[in-house]
């Protein structure tokens, strides 16, 4: 709650800061300060919940703040902080309206905070919209770039469609159960009426769109590719993790009774398999690292979907760790990409000789995305897969995931091969010392979480 | 604590090495490897006096009940010693050489040493898996950065192969963990005992594929000759001397005792594959003209015999395998050192272009002959005792298996003696007449190897005693 209010107010304030503060660097520092305030505010919530050993509800049971909510918020705010420190200076290169970009991102954060704590379908709808609309604008923020305009329009149209479908799903579930309240939907306690089942399926489709799961992923590469890279990094990480947590909350709470409709589960299993296969295989054929990372984000969504399919504690731990590992690694990888002039694989040739630190940072981030042990990505993948194995009946899907993880090694390592083993003279912006320090810290966090995932999990 | 030091010394030294310049990396690498060897020797004595004292356990990820649990048994102590010794031999023999970006080279070598040692001492499946990968990744970079012309695709193939194997193993580990309740070695054994026969059967393959790729066993061997050929020779020494033992060790530690019934059920199939590998690889070794490729194929044949003997699972064969793991490691590193010397001096590895080295560089010739004969398992060399035990173990299971596998001995004599003939005897030519003899470092390494070959060939008792407990522990899982 505190974090939600804090981010929302900071967003509003930032909109006006742009009017009075002309020094863009100061705006960045203001945003970082606001983020720290939100982080501290969130810590108060964590402390309160730990002290009282229970969460609380607010606004007529519209919002439920649990320990998971607050820990997840901390991960989101922490990732955003890393993102600002690594890439905050790049905002200036996109356009004039730096303060507005930060403000929009704070609104997105507020949407995510809402998504981590909703307990009513209407709040879910609000949360999703608050997360989405600023993204449509950010995608088109490079106004003079046609690709950016196209990305924005595409994203907006597709996003609106999916919102419509989400709303339709909510309506049907309301029709079937007579309630908007997540706790009282009762869809896990009895056999489903056809109306509710259709409602659930529509919601699955809409949410799959939001988290770019196949076959609802087709917008992702174009939008990620067309958007200014610095905003792609945010969309593909923090926002996506937020979408997932809404997805998971929805089903884990609504299906609490334990009866899960096989039709619904099968659809989600097929979506997971398709996401893994399509995401990974198409990533192999990409010529640009940015597009490869876009497809890889689809592939990673496939892994996160495992947490959705498993109704156990391990899934909750898994998605938390996944959100942290994936966000940190992708933010790190994108921050290196931002320094490059040429986004093709060949553009990375010989980077290890020219900028060894950038190449090293990129390598560790890619290791983490590929799920190599001793990086955070390994335990993230481990937890979600273990949750699925524990759930039972999904071993075929786990095997597909394993094969896909092996495929992912191919395209992630293409970058590493280019950086370390091929000769070239890449055009790269000279990184500042502050940036270098921050990259080292990010890499250290990725490794630290890879050796001691407990550092994060112990809070749950 | 000594067990932890075995991992910690190369790990820390490796990390520090990345930041050093000039001759710093190679000096630190050598010092660290000597220190590790010292610790390995002390740990060996500690194990003999009180095995429990080598055991260290600390909490790691409580949510998963995964612990940092390491300890030694006879086999682990022997393999730690082999690893430590191998790195000293490698670092001594290449000491006079300059490597481009030497900080990274030595740093990665040391990290892989830490990973390898970790694999041999881990008593927790999650820890085992993490070390398994830690050993692999530095080697990938070493081969890709300092290897031959085709190094990038070749090493990538090697990496993908082993990574896929590891992932299958990971699924197996997850599944077993859910039945065992923790990653502890003993819990794994107990947990697996409660599984149905069909579960055990497919779990067996998840683990076996990972280990078989690493060894490698026919038909999963295709990455190996290319990788050995393209890797820089110091890395090939580690790959063939120590890293293939990870696969054998995995089967002995994590497969046979954990899934004994499935292992017994599939034993014939695995033995047949292994024996096909022996004959097939030996035949190919005969027609090779590249020295590195020939030794690579000979290694497949030797590993094939070890794998067949493992699945014969009787005490004779298991003891044979364990001592042979050590002896094969020593011998093959010796062979690689000589190949490396020849390649560095003359710039060629093609046997057709070699010849007459004996007259110009007698030391090279003497060492090559002794080590090659040990590799053929001549009596009174260290290779003999292991091969003898393995063959008699296989013989107890199936005479035909032994008879066909026995062809490997004859074939190995053919290619090894042929190699000696073509490389060191005969007429010297324009290239080989310029060869210079061994440097002090190389002589030291090879002398150490030859002393071990003769000592263990004449008096293998200490080695056999060391691994006796381990082989009995494996057999206990079969109720024998």
From TrEMBL, chain A:
Which EC number(s) does UniProt give?
Answer: 7.1.1.-
Please list every transmembrane segment annotated in the UniProt record, as residue ranges: 6-22, 29-50, 62-86, 106-133, 153-175, 187-209, 229-254, 266-286, 292-312, 319-338, 358-383, 395-413, 433-457
Which residues are in the NADH:quinone oxidoreductase/Mrp antiporter transmembrane domain? 120-406
Transcription regulation found in the keyword field: no
Subcellular location per the Swiss-Prot or TrEMBL entry = Cell membrane; Endomembrane system; Membrane
Gene Ontology CC, one term: plasma membrane
Protein purpose: NDH-1 shuttles electrons from NADH, via FMN and iron-sulfur (Fe-S) centers, to quinones in the respiratory chain. The immediate electron acceptor for the enzyme in this species is believed to be a menaquinone. Couples the redox reaction to proton translocation (for every two electrons transferred, four hydrogen ions are translocated across the cytoplasmic membrane), and thus conserves the redox energy in a proton gradient.
Say which family it is in.
Answer: Belongs to the complex I subunit 2 family.
The name on file for this protein is: NADH-quinone oxidoreductase subunit N
Q: Which organism is it from?
A: Chitinophaga parva
TrEMBL record, chain B:
Q: Give the location in the cell.
A: Endomembrane system; Membrane
Which GO biological process entries does UniProt record here?
Answer: ATP synthesis coupled electron transport; electron transport coupled proton transport
Keywords tagged on the record? Membrane, Transmembrane, Transmembrane helix
Q: Can you tell me where the transmembrane regions are?
A: 27-49, 70-95, 115-142, 154-178, 202-223, 235-256, 262-287, 294-313, 325-343, 364-385, 397-417, 438-458
In which broad location class does this protein mainly occur, judging by the first location in its UniProt entry? membrane
Domain NADH:quinone oxidoreductase/Mrp antiporter transmembrane residues, every copy: 122-407
Membrane protein topology class:
Multi-pass membrane protein
May I have one GO cellular component term?
membrane
> Highest taxon of the source?
Bacteria
Q: Name one GO molecular function term.
A: NADH dehydrogenase (ubiquinone) activity
Q: Into which family does the record put it?
A: Belongs to the complex I subunit 4 family.
> What protein am I looking at?
NADH-quinone oxidoreductase subunit M
């Amino acid at each position: 709650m505190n974090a939600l209010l804090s981010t929302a107010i900071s967003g509003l304030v930032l909109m006006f800061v742009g009017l009075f503060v002309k020094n863009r660097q100061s705006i960045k520092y203001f945003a970082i300060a606001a983020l720290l305030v939100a982080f501290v505010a969130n810590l108060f919530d964590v402390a309160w919940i730990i002290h009282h050993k229970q969460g609380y509800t607010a606004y007529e049971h519209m919002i439920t703040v649990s320990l998971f909510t607050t820990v997840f918020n901390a991960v989101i705010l922490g990732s955003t902080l890393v993102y600002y420190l690594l890439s905050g200076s790049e905002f200036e290169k996109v356009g004039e309206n730096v303060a507005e970009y930060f403000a929009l991102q704070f609104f997105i954060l507020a949407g995510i905070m809402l998504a981590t704590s909703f307990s009513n379908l209407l709040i879910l709808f609000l949360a999703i919209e608050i997360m989405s609309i600023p993204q449509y604008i950010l995608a088109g923020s490079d106004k003079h770039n046609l690709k950016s305009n196209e990305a924005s329009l595409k994203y907006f149209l597709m996003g609106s469609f999916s919102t419509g479908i989400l709303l339709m799903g909510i309506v049907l579930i309301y029709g079937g159960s007579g309630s908007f309240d997540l706790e009282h939907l009762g869809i896990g306690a009895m056999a489903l009426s056809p109306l509710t089942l259709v409602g659930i399926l529509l919601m699955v489709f809409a949410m799959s769109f939001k988290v770019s799961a196949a076959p609802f992923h087709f917008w992702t590469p174009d939008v990620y590719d067309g958007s200014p890279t610095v905003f792609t990094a945010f969309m593909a990480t923090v926002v996506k993790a937020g979408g997932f947590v809404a997805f998971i909350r929805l089903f884990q709470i609504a299906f609490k009774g334990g009866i899960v409709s096989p039709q619904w589960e099968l659809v989600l299993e097929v979506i997971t398999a398709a996401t893994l296969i399509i995401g990974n295989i198409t990533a192999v054929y990409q010529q640009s690292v940015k597009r490869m990372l876009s497809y890889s984000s689809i592939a990673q969504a496939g892994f996160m979907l495992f947490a959705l399919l498993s109704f156990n504690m391990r899934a909750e731990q898994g998605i938390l760790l996944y959100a942290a590992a994936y966000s940190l690694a992708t933010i790190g990888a994108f921050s290196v990409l931002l320094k490059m002039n040429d986004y093709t694989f060949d553009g990375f040739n010989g980077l290890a000789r020219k900028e060894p630190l950038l190449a090293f940072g990129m390598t560790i981030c890619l290791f983490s995305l590929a799920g190599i042990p001793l990086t955070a990505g390994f335990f993230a993948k481990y937890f979600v897969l273990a949750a699925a194995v524990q759930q039972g009946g999904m071993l075929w899907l786990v095997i597909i995931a394993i094969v896909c993880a092996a495929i992912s090694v191919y395209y992630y390592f293409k970058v590493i091969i280019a950086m370390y083993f091929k000769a070239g003279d890449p055009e790269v912006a000279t990184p500042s010392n502050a940036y270098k320090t921050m990259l080292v810290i990010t890499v250290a966090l990725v490794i630290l979480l890879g050796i001691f995932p407990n550092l994060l999990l112990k809070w749950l | 604590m000594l067990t932890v030091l075995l991992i910690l010394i190369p790990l820390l030294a490796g990390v520090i090495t990345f930041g050093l310049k000039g001759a710093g990396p190679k000096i630190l690498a050598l010092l660290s490897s000597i220190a590790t060897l010292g610790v390995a020797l002390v740990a060996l004595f500690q194990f003999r006096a009180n095995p429990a004292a080598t055991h260290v356990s600390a909490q790691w990820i409580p949510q998963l009940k995964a612990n940092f649990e390491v300890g030694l048994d006879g086999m682990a102590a022997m393999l730690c010693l082999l690893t430590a010794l191998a790195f000293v031999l490698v670092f001594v023999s290449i000491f006079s050489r300059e490597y481009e970006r030497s900080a990274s080279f030595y740093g990665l070598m040391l990290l892989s040493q830490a990973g390898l040692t970790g694999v041999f001492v881990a008593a927790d499946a999650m820890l085992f898996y993490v070390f398994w990968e830690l050993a692999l990744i530095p080697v990938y970079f070493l081969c890709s950065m300092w290897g031959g012309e085709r190094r990038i695709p070749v090493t990538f193939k090697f990496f993908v192969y082993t990574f896929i194997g590891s992932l299958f193993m990971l699924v197996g580990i997850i599944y077993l963990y859910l039945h065992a309740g923790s990653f502890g070695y003993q819990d794994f054994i107990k947990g697996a005992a409660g599984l149905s026969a069909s579960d055990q059967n497919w779990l067996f393959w998840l683990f076996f594929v990972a280990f078989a790729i690493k060894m490698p066993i026919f038909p999963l061997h295709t990455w190996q000759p290319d990788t050995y050929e393209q890797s820089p020779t110091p890395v090939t020494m580690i790959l063939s001397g120590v890293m293939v033992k990870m696969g054998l060790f995995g089967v002995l530690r994590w497969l046979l005792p954990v899934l004994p019934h499935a292992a017994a059920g599939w034993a014939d199939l695995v033995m047949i594959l292994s024996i096909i590998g022996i004959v097939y690889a030996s035949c190919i070794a005969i027609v090779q003209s590249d020295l590195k490729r020939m030794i690579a194929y000979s290694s497949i044949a030797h590993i094939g015999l070890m794998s067949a003997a493992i699945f014969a699972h009787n005490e004779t064969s298991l003891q044979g395998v364990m001592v042979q793991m050590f002896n094969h490691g020593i011998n093959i590193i010796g062979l690689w050192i000589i190949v490396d010397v020849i390649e560095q001096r003359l710039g060629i590895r093609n046997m057709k272009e070699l010849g007459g080295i004996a007259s110009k560089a007698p030391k090279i010739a003497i060492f090559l002959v002794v080590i090659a004969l040990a590799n053929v398992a001549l009596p009174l060399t260290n290779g003999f005792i292991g091969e003898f035990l393995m063959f008699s173990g296989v013989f107890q299971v199936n005479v035909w298996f032994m008879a066909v596998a026995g062809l490997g001995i004859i074939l190995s004599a053919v290619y090894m003696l042929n190699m000696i003939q073509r490389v060191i005897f005969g007429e010297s030519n324009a290239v080989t007449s310029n060869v210079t003899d061994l440097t002090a470092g190389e002589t030291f390494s090879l002398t150490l190897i030859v002393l071990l070959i003769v000592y263990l060939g004449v008096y293998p008792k200490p080695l056999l005693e060391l691994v006796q407990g381990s082989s009995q522990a494996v057999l206990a899982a079969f109720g024998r």
